[in-house]
């Protein structure tokens, strides 16, 4: 299957899942991928569905910028802080020296949510530097984890190579990510018109 067909199939799958949830009146994740990005990976294991997107020309193995969306079925296993801490622990397993910002906790559209930045100056496996902005939303039906990620050459911990403009873009992007539920007035869905 060509990459173009794979991306088209992935986008159709995402649309079908969203349409099915809408028809069933279930919880929905609304996000608009950056222009020129497509699906590079989609996997479902047990109760977790993971979709990764990257700019055209990048792959799941060879990427600089990535958007990772995880949908974990079932009631949340902890509060937002606990979920964010477990994500940082997972990064620590492959990082020589993790730096993580404090969690920014909030209620968004009636759901508990939080953001946390993480920096890995050098991964153990690939020897590359990585930076991420992680967002967690605890829904009634599932937990949503959205990650904006950068990967590049290893860097000193005190010299984060991500430009301020990119950080601002990531924050603006995360501000537009919404979980809603047409079954609940307290979780209204955005207009799709």
How do the strands and helices of this protein lay out in sequence?
Layout: H1 3-24, E1 28-30, E2 37-45, E3 48-55, E4 65-73, H2 80-92, E5 99-100, E6 104-108, E7 111-120, E8 128-138, E9 142-153, H3 164-176, E10 178-180
Antiparallel strand pairs: 1-10, 2-3, 3-4, 4-9, 5-7, 6-7, 7-8, 8-9
Describe this structure in words.
With 193 residues, the chain is an alpha+beta fold. The chain has helices at residues 3-24, 80-92, 164-176, and strands at residues 28-30, 37-45, 48-55, 65-73, 99-100, 104-108, 111-120, 128-138, 142-153, 178-180. The strands form 2 sheets. Strands 2, 3, 4, 5, 6, 7, 8 and 9 form an 8-stranded antiparallel sheet that branches. It has a two-stranded antiparallel sheet with strand order 1-10. The protein is globular. The model is unreliable at 1-23 (pLDDT under 50).
Secondary structure: helix percent? 10-25%
The CATH superfamily is Mog1/PsbP, alpha/beta/alpha sandwich
- Secondary-structure element pattern, one letter each: HEEEEHEEEEEHE
- Compute the average pLDDT: 88
Class by SSE composition: alpha+beta
Strand content: 35-45%
The top-level CATH class is Alpha Beta
> Shape, please?
globular
Radius of gyration over C-alpha positions, nearest whole angstrom:
17 Å
CATH architecture descriptor text: 3-Layer(aba) Sandwich
Largest pleated sheet: 8 strands, antiparallel
Count of DSSP H/I helices: 3
Write down the domain tally.
1
Please tally the β strands and state the result: 10
Query: Which spans of ≥5 residues are poorly predicted at pLDDT below 50?
Result: 1-23
CATH fold category name:
Protein Transport Mog1p, Chain A
Distance between the termini: 33 Å
